Amino acid sequence: MDYFCYISRSKIDQLYGALAPGEADEWTEQQSTEQKVDSSLSADLNVARVISLFKGDISYGRKGVIQRERKIKLQYTEKLRQVLIAAAKKSPIRALTEALRTDKFGSLYYHHQGEFTMKEALKRDGGSISNNVVVTLSTMIDAVTVLLDCSVRFFSEGNEPDGTFIVTSSNARFFDGKIPLQMESVFLILHRQPLEIVGTPLYLKLADAAGSPL
Fold it and tell me: Is residue 214 part of a domain?
């Protein structure tokens, strides 16, 4: 089962606070059925696709394991849903592959699904680090490098009450930059050059079958 392995709580709080009360919930599933759910990489993320993203009781963190901050994670999953629906209501969230193909940018948010790898190995002392660290995920689209900056403290697993982040045997190879993971993301572009895009994600969604708990 897919799950959110990362939700940027600070960005979601900021965007959620800007929503008018009930703005996202005005879009019901019945209204969204008028839009086609197209799962191709070049398809923009419309309201129907956002609603589909949250079907199946998707969670922030893996199911079947003990989760810290369970109630808080449920709240952020719901906040993310409302933020994405409100954004897609104003304008479908552009697929990055299509924006690159047409060289038409200018949107606030972009959507992409692909293989992401740590740009640099996570530096740590033994098995833990401070959870204030920012890491960068990297993927390639043709000749363009896409870099997403992520705060370690917003990953769904590994954060401890004392403010440290624990790297385990099941996710060490990912954080060492040795294996990629298939992820889906909506992100904001911070900087763009012809061969490089730098952004920061609202979320990262991972398939449970991918093997590495984050």
Answer: no
